[in-house]
Design goal:
By secondary structure, this protein is α/β, with parallel strands linked by helices. The protein starts with 5 loop residues before the first helix and ends in a 10-residue tail after the last helix. The structure holds adenosine-5'-triphosphate (ATP) and magnesium ion. GO terms for molecular function: 3'-5' DNA helicase activity; ATP binding; DNA binding; hydrolase activity.
Length: 623
């Protein structure tokens, strides 16, 4: 779709970057300035003007989605001509190297899902209390392990955010042992192994150096130390390393990315050329202005000039709502009117800070039959372990007295009922209570549990969840658990609030449970939809939308605690959150809606400081 004549429309700075000849070069520029475009045009330049064979060109980036998108953009530019240029992620390229050298097969590489499964086993083994923690805390643990490996950190000096130091160290070590024992490697090992291979075997390295004589890398601010070390080896001896990036969009520090490596590029390569691009072609003037105001509040940054092309899209639309219910209703009604005004659904994106935000919205979209696509996997509210506890209570109240269900609830909160109570052949609470005639205190505990369950069974879903939380005391149990395990209490309570408010939409348990299975079914269908024929409103985390652009963008729940996230206590963390919000805003081409709420799940909420910051520029920061 991209007209070939666009080449002539490149501005003079872009043209200079595109026609860079040899040696290292850095393109440092803001969002929408054509960095990715410059890469695709440069590939063509290398092939058509400089006579480089396509198979000697390596275009490398971080996510598969980004690599695919770049390949598509390039093929459009070449009018569908297929050329053997390599487009890959760091992992896919480095895996190819390992496969050649060690004959690894793909089954030995464990992906995110298997890593999480392994990690959940390992952490339960090291710290039994972690067994019931959900996917989210495991994902965080995994990020930390990645950061340690990819930043080549010394584990003995590492300070963990998710668990006490010695627990983390032990989990890390047991995890590593398990990998060795099962003869598998994870994504981060791929990098270390590749680095070791290149360092030890000059013959192998030089083979790959001859293969990839021109290397182009997008989103370079996300690179971690190990990826960089390997890239430097690979680029030798010519160092035809062309990198593009924007330090203001560095949002992967928590995974070990080191944006300062990009800013230090010219120290690493003293002869490197630097190209600056200063025109944002993507967004309307007002959006650019607001985003620049925001980012000017960061102190640690390389300041870049950026101007727009005079596109008028109207002002940034700010909105504040009593609660998320009203907020999501408004988003839906806007989506419908954009649609009526002739926009395609896929031109609209809703970008959220965390997955929690997306779930309710997905439910609403399904209800109104609006097609949508999700960019990253949104963990389901109903799959969270706290939801699981609540469902176990409800199931028990509905008469399911199976051992798994009862074991799950007897001591949440603690009732001093021993698990061994369920070890005999008797399972129903009736029978068990009768068994304990001799120990009246135990019989009493079981009787009180039965009364609780009976009460739950008589209530509506909404009341039942409330009863379990407040009267039975599940909330209190959860708070204690969170404290003991260093988890975020608010995040967990929020899941319960969300679950309870979801329950409020159904009259009976049966209706609620049947909605859940429909929801799961719909999500499964969504996942199976191939990436190619994706249609519908885009629902994504901000991280998942990096590098992409949409005519209409909604940013819901722009409140303190959400963005900046409650975890971001230190100012460096707030700066990262600000960059994240900057990335979010700069995805929008024409219409940007920034919404906040006054109350989130029963608690009053404060509008994010970022909403104020977009209104005026702060001129102290930057360098
Ligand atoms: P990000 O930092 O978000 O990754 P980017 O710098 O990679 O942004 P691109 O995605 O390459 O920016 O370009 C942004 C948009 O501007 C694209 O739609 C692109 O086609 C358009 N664009 C870039 N340069 C020009 C130009 N010279 N003339 C017209 N359109 C342009
Ligand atoms: Mg880009």
């Amino acid at each position: 779709k991209q007209p070939l004549s666009e080449q002539s429309q490149l501005n003079s700075y872009q043209k200079m970057a595109v026609s860079h000849k040899e040696g290292p070069a850095l393109v440092l520029a803001g969002p929408g300035s054509g960095k990715t475009l410059v890469i695709t045009h440069r590939i063509r330049m290398l092939i058509e003007e400089y006579g480089v064979a396509p198979e000697h060109i390596l275009v490398i980036t971080f996510t598969r989605a980004a690599a695919t998108q770049m390949k598509t953009r390039f093929e459009e530019l070449m009018e569908g001509q297929h050329l053997p240029v390599t487009f890959g992620t760091f992992h896919s390229v480095y895996f190819r190297v390992l496969k050649h050298a060690y004959h690894y097969d793909a089954s030995q590489i464990i992906g995110e899902e298997r890593r999480l499964r392994l990690l959940s086993e390992v952490s339960a083994q090291v710290e039994p209390a972690m067994a019931e923690e959900g996917i989210e805390s495991l994902q965080e643990l995994l990020s930390e392990i990645s950061a340690v490996k990819s930043d080549m950190l010394d584990i003995s000096h590492y300070y963990s955010r998710t668990c006490p130091e010695d627990t983390f160290r032990e989990i890390y070590q047991v995890y590593e042992e398990r990998l060795r024992k099962e003869q598998v490697i994870d994504f981060d090992d791929m990098l270390s192994l590749c680095f070791e291979l290149f360092s030890a075997r000059k013959d192998i390295l030089s083979g790959w150096q001859r293969k990839y004589q021109y290397i182009l890398c997008d989103e370079f601010q996300d690179i971690n130390r190990l990826q960089y070390e390997i890239l430097k080896l690979l680029a030798l001896p010519e160092n035809n390393l062309f990198i593009v990036g924007d330090d203001d969009q560095a949002i992967y520090r928590f995974r070990g990315a080191r944006p300062e490596l990009m800013l230090g590029f010219e120290k690493e390569y003293p002869g490197a050329d630097r190209y600056l691009l200063a025109v944002n072609y993507r967004s309307s003037e007002k959006i650019i202005q607001a985003a620049e105001n925001l980012i000017s509040h960061n102190k640690v940054r390389f300041r870049k000039e950026i101007s727009g092309t005079g596109k008028d899209g109207g002002p940034v639309i700010l909105g504040s709502f009593p609660g998320t219910g009203e907020e999501y209703e408004r988003i839906l009604s806007h989506i419908r009117s954009y649609r009526e005004a002739g926009r395609a659904y896929e031109e609209i994106a809703v970008l959220v800070r965390t997955n929690t935000g997306a779930r309710k919205l997905l439910g609403k979209l399904m209800e109104y039959n609006i097609p949508f696509q999700t960019r990253d996997t949104v963990p389901c509210l109903y799959d969270h372990w706290t939801s699981g506890d609540i469902f176990a209570y409800i199931r028990a109240a509905m008469g399911d007295e199976s051992r798994t269900v009862l074991l799950r609830i007897i001591n949440k909160p603690c009732r001093y009922i021993s698990r061994t109570v369920f070890s005999g052949s008797k399972v129903s609470l009736d029978e068990i209570e009768a068994m304990y005639e001799e120990k009246p205190w135990m019989a009493e505990r079981i009787r009180s549990l039965r009364e609780d369950l009976r009460a739950v069974g008589r209530l509506s879903p909404y009341q039942a969840v409330g009863y379990i939380r407040k009267t039975i005391g599940y909330d209190g149990y959860l708070k204690g658990y969170a404290k003991e395990r260093h988890l975020e209490e608010n995040g967990l309570l929020e899941i319960l609030e969300e679950l309870q408010s979801d329950a409020g939409e159904y009259k009976t348990f049966a209706a609620w449970f049947s909605h859940m299975s429909e929801y799961r079914e719909e999500m499964r269908r969504q996942r199976e939809n191939s990436a190619a024929d994706r249609r519908g409103v885009v629902i994504s985390t901000i991280h998942g939308a990096k590098g992409l652009e949409y005519p209409v963008v909604f940013l819901p729940d722009v409140n303190e605690q959400v963005i900046p996230h409650e975890k971001a206590g230190l100012s460096a963390d707030v700066e990262e959150e600000r960059r994240l919000f900057y990335v979010a805003m700069t995805r929008a081409k024409e219409k940007l809606h920034i919404y906040s709420v006054k109350e989130r799940y029963g608690k009053s909420a404060v509008v994010s400081r970022f909403v104020d910051e977009i209104k005026s520029r702060k001129d102290t920061g930057g360098s």
